[in-house]
Amino acid sequence: MKTKPPASEARFAYEGLDRVIHERARLSVLTSLVTHPKGLAFNHLKQLCGLTDGNLSRHLSVLEKDKIVEIIKMQDHNRPLTLCRITTSGRARYVEYLSTLEQVVRDAAHAASVKSSSNPARSPSASRA
Amino acid sequence: MKTKPPASEARFAYEGLDRVIHERARLSVLTSLVTHPKGLAFNHLKQLCGLTDGNLSRHLSVLEKDKIVEIIKMQDHNRPLTLCRITTSGRARYVEYLSTLEQVVRDAAHAASVKSSSNPARSPSASRA
Asked: pLDDT by residue (tens digit) across B68-80?
């Protein structure tokens, strides 16, 4: 069978893992912004995410195009300041994404704990020792 | 400042989100395999992940190259059967990844709940109504 199976059978497909949000740097940016709902200055955001200027700019463009974030250019004591903020619809989309991410963690964490307790000698931490 | 800030300041960098595992289809494959430690037949895995033959093969190759999964070609009543299984080191790497994923969920869920309770009129579910 070469065709894609119906989604109903695809227990682990995680269709809710929105690719725009799931990319690591963008997930980092959005988690920073969702925890700072009043917004963050570009330089502070860059620092929190461990990104370079170029990388952050590129990912913010992707997110701005999808109206997930808004970029506000302003002045602070005559110095230019770029404020980055998650939008209301971006926040809703992030929360949707988060519910699927929580499902992954539940699925995986359950399996990891079952395996560890049933066979402690082959648990991941033991195998690395 | 054009340089990358030190990791210690990068509170939301999530360096542990291993790119090999984080890609959506591979996360789907590995979560299926971690919940089925004895392995899964290729066709069953394909169904659980909602992937096509070609897509699954491609992602399995990436995971096999990094020794995260092993692919065992066997016979079942004279019919060829391909068994896919997560390796011990792959499992350890997945568990490491999972601990960072849990951190993302904790960071985000906390922010989401704080925002919702402090300002219910602008909560994500309300904004979609």
From this structure: 999 999 998 999 9
